[in-house]
Each structure stands twice: as structure tokens, then as C-alpha cells.
Amino acid sequence: MFADEINETLDSWTSKIPGAGNSAEMQQAKQTQIVVNAMIGNLGENVTAGEISKLDRKAKLKLAIACKKPMDEVNSVLESFKQMEIMHRILRYRKENGVALPTDQNGLKMAMKEDGMKVMTGQEKVEMRKAYQKSARA
């Protein structure tokens, strides 16, 4: 689904506007698409965030070589993938429980706060706490 969303961004009508294809957002989407395609090629179409969390340095290095991108860019895309999967789980949880779905960015942040801990695994919670502590120090 992550690959589909990237492809949809690149195929949207806004990318057809002269000059819009060179915007920073479109360039970032193109770079992300390269990494995602390499990820699909190396890890399969149905890879999950849990499987990505278990990738060791060697597997990530192979992925970086396959897509010819630096390791920090690969790590950034992998982190985005994990965050998107968590967001999808939160949205599914809210839909299954009859809770209103968010309609904007602020609503999505609120849903993350309210329901994030209910749908995340123990490992994901630990990783989020570490990331929060890192950002608080910086």
C-alpha cells in the first residue's frame, strides 16, 4: 500500500502541471519510490513494519546498494513506512470501534495520541519512547 500511495502521488494531476514536477515534494516522492521499489524487490510485496524493524545492518546495506541510495535515505523511508503502517492500524481500529475518522492533520495527530498505544506492539512503543527521548534532548 505504501508503494501505491507513492505512485499515486507521482501520477496525480498536480504532477502534470508544468514546473510542479520539479517541486521538492515531487522530487522527494521520486526518491522514495526508488527505495520502495528496491524494498519490494528485496523484501517482497507484503513486507510488514514488524519485519522491517527486524532488518539488520547487512539487510539494510543490501537495500541501499540495490536502490543506489545512501543509508540515511533508506533508513528515512523505512521509518516512514513503519509510521504509515501504524497510522493505518489506528484508522482501522477507529473504524472497527465506530469512532470518527480524522479529517485533517490535527485530527490525525489527536487520533495518534488517543489510540496509538492501543494498536502499537510493545517493541513499537519502546522505539517511540526512545525516539521521543532523543528529540527531547536535541
Question: What would a concise description of this structure say?
Answer:
The protein is about 75% helix and about 0% strand. It has one domain (about 1-135).
Descriptive keywords:
138 residues, mainly alpha, globular
Task: Lay out the secondary structure.
Elements: H1 2-11, H2 24-43, H3 49-53, H4 57-67, H5 71-96, H6 105-119, H7 122-137
Task: Walk me through the structure.
By secondary structure, the chain is mainly α. The chain has one domain (2-137). Helices cover 75% and strands 0% of the residues. The longest helix has 26 residues, at 71-96.
Major sheet characteristics:
none
Shape: globular
Helix/strand-derived class?
Answer: mainly alpha
Terminal CA distance: 33 Å
Percentage of β-strand residues? under 5%
Q: Which consecutive residue ranges, at least 5 long each, have pLDDT under 50? A: none
* Helix count, DSSP H or I runs of 4 or more residues: 7
Query: SSE order, as H and E?
Result: HHHHHHH
Radius of gyration: 16 Å
The figure for the number of domains is 1
Proportion in helices: over 70%
Number of beta strands: 0
Average pLDDT metric: 81
